[in-house]
TrEMBL record:
Species whose genome carries this gene: Dyadobacter fermentans
UniProt superkingdom: Bacteria
PROSITE patterns: TAT
One Pfam short name: Aldo_ket_red
Protein name as catalogued: Diketogulonate reductase-like aldo/keto reductase
CDD domains: AKR_PA4992-like
Bilayer-crossing regions: none
């Protein structure tokens, strides 16, 4: 995958520069003496979620072969060992729902994860049929979070989702998008509708959500999931060959991925960020962003200025 290749180059550059990125200890016992992954409350219930989850777009759209599924099975096993919970999927992501359902069932971990998926179609019955298929593929009688993907026919589907929530088929409901252009509409819906979650794009360089959307979600008590945290790998390409700032260690930042992710999760309106990966080393690195100290506002400003200067 293009963004993973760029990330590998960035990690290799850090290692060559003596930045001290430690990705070797993968056993669960290696994490026993580390700080637990930070958790945040879902405002509508108080249930807690780890601040780093897992996206599945592209990475989990694979066949049934062991060579394709083996690395993903390792990722899911390690994620559970380290305390990760939220896995985000969609019917749009090809075979991802089926693969997630199969592998978590094989690992006997299906019920230990927080499954978030989406409805991505037009029409009431079409939406019901698609969501029913998602439950079957993910091996669940109840989905933790069902979201309207990219606001497609959102008014129709939100009505159904409220019915499903009342019936106990879903625990939480929400809406999603991935572009800055969608933020105004997302904010309007956050303010006007009774939803539990909103998912959108946000990164250290793509900060349109800081204008008002993040605040609107916090004020309304809506949990926030962040997608596109690495801008599809563009952030890794931007820092290729560059060392982390010396002060990054003051916030337990050991890699560029953690630099980017800690900027996001240090905004207290954010509930969870969902970087995607099929590489267990990258998963460990990503989840590590939820451990240790977070940047304060002064440090966040320094991070923004550093990125603007490269």
């Amino acid at each position: 995958m293009k963004h993973n290749f760029s990330r590998r180059e960035a990690l290799a550059g850090l290692a060559a520069a003596g930045a001290g990125l430690a990705l070797s200890p993968f056993s669960s016992s290696a994490h026993n003496d580390l700080k637990m992954i930070l958790e945040r409350k879902i405002p509508s219930t108080g249930e807690r979620l780890p601040v780093v989850g897992l996206g599945s777009w592209q990475q989990f759209d694979v066949g049934a072969g062991a060579s394709e599924r083996g690395p993903l099975k390792e990722v899911l096993q390690k994620m559970q060992e380290m305390g990760g919970k939220l896995i985000d999927a969609s019917p749009m992501y090809g075979r991802a729902e089926q693969v997630i359902g199969d592998l978590t069932t094989d690992l006997k971990l299906n019920e230990q994860f927080f499954f978030a998926t989406k409805v991505w179609t037009t029409g009431k019955q079409e939406g019901i049929d698609q969501m029913t298929a998602s439950l079957r593929k993910m091996r669940r009688k109840k989905i933790d979070l069902m979201q309207v993907h990219n606001l497609q026919d959102w008014e129709t589907h939100l009505k159904t989702l409220r019915d499903w929530k009342t019936a106990g088929k879903v625990r939480y409901i929400g809406i999603t998008h991935y572009t800055d252009a969608s933020h105004t509409r997302l904010e309007q819906i956050v303010k006007s509708e009774n939803i539990d979650f909103v998912q959108f794009n946000y990164s250290i360089r793509s900060r349109n959500a800081e204008k008002s959307l993040l605040k609107a979600a916090k004020d309304k008590g809506v949990a926030v999931i962040i997608n596109e945290p690495f801008e599809q790998g563009a952030l890794f390409r931007a820092v290729k060959g560059k060392e982390l700032p010396a002060w990054a260690g003051d916030y337990d930042i050991k890699s560029w991925a953690q630099f980017f992710l800690k900027y996001i999760i240090s905004n207290d309106a954010v509930t969870c960020v969902i970087p995607g990966t099929s590489d267990v080393k990258h998963l460990v690195d990503n989840l590590g962003a939820g451990e240790g100290r977070l940047p304060d506002e002064t440090a966040r400003k320094k991070m923004r200025e550093w990125m603007a200067g490269i």
